[in-house]
Amino acid sequence: MQVTINVNGEDRTAEVEPRHLLVRFLRDDLGLTGTHWGCDTSNCGTCVVLYDGEPVKSCTMLAAMAAGHRVRTVESLETADGLDPVQQGFIEQHGLQCGFCTPGMMLTARALLDRDPDPTDQEIREAISGQLCRCTGYLNIVRAVRWAAHHPTEATVTAGASAGSTP
Ligand code: FES
Ligand code: FES
């Protein structure tokens, strides 16, 4: 079957099997490898993308279910103006080590800040509670999101140095 999904502001079409997962569509069909796949049990949350603005685990959704909807991946965070404040926050507050969980964490943070520009630490912790970080711990991730909340217009042009956009 053919599906068309608006990904990062652009309509993208591919021929897929009905059982094809959204995470596979993004990674394998579109080459957007910033969306990571870390488990087979829907537990880790490293595959989180924004679906019509809300964080979803892309390993739990079929590509066909996303047809006609808007999906945003980590590759969209950096723009011509520079890094998203969330990306800058992860750099400033050392919010990552291996970076595997980072794309999903940053997208959840972006959705949270779009909804609530000044969340409490507890609200940040609740927002990321469905996502696991295997190495950093959560303190610096919370600090990174708080930093972004306090620097909402911060944009640093660092072409090619996006936090968390690596395969
Ligand atoms: S890959 Fe682990 S929850 Fe999706
Ligand atoms: S930074 Fe390694 S899993 Fe989170």
Automatic annotation (TrEMBL):
InterPro entries: 2Fe-2S-bd, 2Fe-2S-bd_dom_sf, 2Fe-2S_ferredoxin-like_sf, 2Fe-2S_ferredoxin-type, Beta-grasp_dom_sf, Diverse_Oxidoreductases. The keyword Cell inner membrane does not apply. SUPFAM superfamilies: 2Fe-2S ferredoxin-like (SSF54292), CO dehydrogenase ISP C-domain like (SSF47741). Keywords: 2Fe-2S, Iron, Iron-sulfur, Metal-binding, Oxidoreductase. The keyword Oxidoreductase applies. Residues 1-77 form the 2Fe-2S ferredoxin-type domain. Pfam families: Fer2, Fer2_2. It comes from the Bacteria. PANTHER family: OXIDOREDUCTASE WITH IRON-SULFUR SUBUNIT. This is (2Fe-2S)-binding protein.
